[in-house]
Fold this sequence. Notes:
The structure is a single chain. By secondary structure, the chain is mostly helical. About 65% of the residues lie in helices and about 0% in strands. It has a domain at about 30-105. The chain has helices at about 30-60, 65-105, 115-120.
Amino acid sequence: MVVNPPPGPGDKQHDLLPEEEVPTRRQRLFSNRDLRASTIGWEIAIPIVGGPFFGFILDRRFDTGVRWTIILLLVGLISAVASVAKYIRYEFYLMNKEAREDEERGIKREWVKFEDEEDDEDE
Length: 123
């Protein structure tokens, strides 16, 4: 068994808590943005598939032909498009917020124009 000597007054370890008392934080596997991007597919698929499914059930129940299937398909499509638009608007908001924060910190980011890279390769 190895015994470590007690820390002295000039030792950096002196001011720290004992190892078992130091709070540790795990690194997240996925960020909130990653999880939001993965759910956008469900936000598109469920209204587009669920609307016609329930429309079909209503059409069979009330013998209305395909009226409710078409109506709920359109409602599902509009809902899916609205969901994607909301997601894109939120992503642009986050990008602009990060750009403003970087600008306040003095970090300058330059966007790469891919057309320029192709021109450089040809020369």
